[in-house]
TrEMBL record:
It comes from the Bacteria. The gene is flhB. It comes from Exobacillus caeni. One of its GO terms (biological process) is bacterial-type flagellum assembly. It is found in: Cell membrane. InterPro entries: FlhB, T3SS_substrate_exporter, T3SS_substrate_exporter_C. One of its GO terms (cellular component) is plasma membrane. Belongs to the type III secretion exporter family. Keywords: Bacterial flagellum biogenesis, Bacterial flagellum protein export, Cell membrane, Cell projection, Cilium, Flagellum, Membrane, Protein transport, Transmembrane, Transmembrane helix, Transport. It is a multi-pass membrane protein. This is Flagellar biosynthetic protein FlhB. Its main location: membrane.
Length: 365
């Protein structure tokens, strides 16, 4: 029964039920693992491009027609030589760049913006590393038939249906004008088709942006689910970042031993050890040649105080009981610091008593 209980506890401790810690999130981000919807950059690019066409579409059309007129009227009269071909190629390329540059620039800005609004600036090389598991057919099949693949399929079907509905709706509202295109001039027809195309593009872009926001919410949920941690994971992370508690306790114990040994080594040089008598012990030293005021060379409470008193007894250092002074020195003065002015009188009385016993008026041993 106890074995089964332990197995159950171990099983539940491995379940991914806890939210990811900041350290886990940081590690995932360094690997390029963030909540991201690929739909948002695409929707923003489409929206930006069609908005651009709304405002500068006439300029771009005029540039294209100008390039076309030059190609049909000017170039046929040129002699076919390497120089003329090179010039024709350069001129057409320059005109094409002028026409396409605004579109490319807007697409670039919107693409970067679409990623930045999701996870900020991120440069990670881990996704570019060659990993054999990426070409593992078993894992590939698992990805194809996973829940995520089904969700992506349903998303694609939904997008197709909604885009078709929006496009058909706009065409249906303009059906009478579409049917009359045959009675219009080529210029009027092209203008109408261009305007209708931009309208459909804007409507579809807004729809895709709405769907992209919903997709980002789902991607955020899926990401949070995937980076969940078990209670054991959190314990292991704490051990990794803060150190094993057992090792930390041993380090602290060793530090206490070193500190105690260092203080005990100062006892033979002290003039007196002031005690509480059981809870506190403070060692004082004064040398009128090198010190402006008496200095605390060691102090401790309880077990440390006991060790200091034992060391004082071993080295024949006078131990003097003074509860108020011992408590005040312990709480107000750190090791290596001089006694504060408000305690001068009490400390002076203690040192005077010690010096009288030792038979000399100055400080020091």
């Amino acid at each position: 029964m106890n074995v089964r209980y332990r197995v159950d506890l171990q099983f539940f401790s491995q379940e991914k039920t806890e939210k990811a810690t900041p350290q886990k999130r940081l590690e995932s981000r360094k690997k390029g693992q963030v909540a991201r919807s690929a739909e948002i950059p695409g929707a923003l690019i489409m929206l930006g491009v069609f908005l651009l066409l709304t405002f500068v579409g006439g300029y771009m059309l005029e540039g294209f027609l100008s390039m076309l007129r030059n190609s049909l009227s000017q170039y046929p009269g040129w002699e076919v030589t390497p120089q003329n071909v090179d010039r024709m190629f350069k001129e057409n390329t320059l005109e094409a760049v002028k026409i396409a540059a605004p579109v490319m620039l807007v697409a670039l800005v919107m693409g970067v913006l679409g990623n930045y609004v999701q996870f900020g600036f991120l440069f990670a090389t881990d996704p570019l590393k060659m990993k054999l598991e990426k070409i593992n057919p078993l894992k590939g099949a698992k990805r194809i038939f996973s829940v995520r693949a089904v969700v992506e399929l349903l998303k694609s079907i939904l997008k197709i249906v909604l885009i078709s509905a929006v496009t058909f709706g706009l065409l249906w509202t303009k059906r009478e004008e579409v049917l009359l295109l045959s009675q219009k001039s080529i210029g009027q027809s092209l203008q109408f088709i261009g305007t209708l195309t931009v309208q459909i593009g804007l409507a579809v872009a807004v729809l895709l942006l709405f769907l992209a926001v919903l997709d980002y919410v789902y991607q955020k949920y899926d990401f949070e689910k995937n980076i969940r941690m078990s209670k054991q994971d959190i314990k292991d992370e704490m051990k990794k970042t803060e150190g094993d508690p057992l090792i930390k306790s041993k380090i602290k114990e060793k530090q206490r031993e070193l500190g105690l040994n260092r203080m005990i080594s100062e006892i033979p040089h002290a003039d007196v050890v002031v005690t509480n008598p059981t809870h506190f012990a403070v060692a004082l030293k004064y040398d009128d040649q090198t010190m402006e005021a008496p200095t605390v060379t060691a102090k401790g409470a309880d077990f440390v105080a006991l060790k200091l008193k034992e060391a004082a007894k071993e080295h024949n250092i006078i131990t003097m009981e003074n509860k108020p002074l011992a408590r005040a020195l312990y709480s107000q003065v750190e090791i290596g610091q001089a006694v504060p002015e408000e305690l001068f009188k009490a400390v002076a009385e203690v040192l005077a008593y010690v010096y009288s016993i030792k038979g000399y008026p100055g400080g020091g041993n």
